[in-house]
Amino acid sequence: MDDVVAVNIEAIRPETVADRIARVLREAISGGELRGGVALRQDELAARFGFSRMPVRDALRLLESEGLVTIHPTKGAFVARFDAKEIAEIYTIRSLLETEALRLSYAGLTTADLDRAATLLAQIDAETDVGRWGRLNKQFHMTLYGACKNERLIGLIATHHDAADRYVRVLLSSLDYEQQSQDEHRALLKACRDRNIDAAIAILQGHLLEGGRKLTASEIATFSEPE
Q1: Of 26, 72, 123, 169, whose CA is between 20 and 30 Å from 42?
Q2: Helix boundaries (H) for the chain
Q3: pLDDT, tens digit, for every residue of 55-103?
Q4: ∠ at Cα 162 (158, 165), nearest 5°?
Q5: Positive or negative CA dihedral for 128, 131, 137, 140?
Q6: What is the C-alpha to C-alpha distance for residues 81 and 92, in angstroms, rounded to an integer?
Q7: More confident residue, 203 or 68
Q8: For the whole model, what pTM was predicted?
Q9: What is d(CA 211, CA 202) in angstroms, rounded to the nearest whole number?
Q10: How far apart are CA 9 and CA 116, in angstroms?
Q11: Best CA proximity match to 207, nearest among 144, 151, 147, 152
């Protein structure tokens, strides 16, 4: 009950100055107006928005938690670089590894495993902290693969989930993909409950490849060029 109350209070929290600044910058980054590598200087932003540096700093930290901004301890804040080639490679590899892990795992999945996965989906629905979405998303997927009994495969999957984490946060927070992602998660979970492995693998593969396609097609992604 306490968790529900906390979520409801957060949902009606008034937008702060930092939230408003973050929203404007988020739209500029997602829309391609601010490209990867552009410096975000607090003094300039404070003058532009007409506020002190404190809410600007808080806005930049919020965007950092979403994966849109990187903050260097001595050089300051920059728009994060989103490499379309890296995105495509990560999501292609994830599709190959995770569909095989699910194939190996599904026969050993217990009702408790599937109920745990459902609980994680409910937590994603209720979570307002974008920084936690990637972690919850990873936990959901790994719960479905845990019975595959191949530690090296699980380790490779975990590595590529970590590599994709900031892209997952951008995908969910800035590209209006959260509802579609959750619908696909629930379809995947239902196929696992129904013990329909072919449907589950097809859903998982489509889910991962579509996420990669949406990211690489977005304005924030650029193909890397030689230095």
Answers
A1: 169
A2: 2-11, 17-30, 42-49, 53-65, 84-105, 111-126, 130-145, 151-174, 178-193, 197-217
A3: 999 999 988 877 788 999 899 999 988 888 889 999 999 999 999 999 9
A4: 135
A5: negative
A6: 20
A7: 203
A8: 0.73
A9: 14
A10: 25
A11: 144
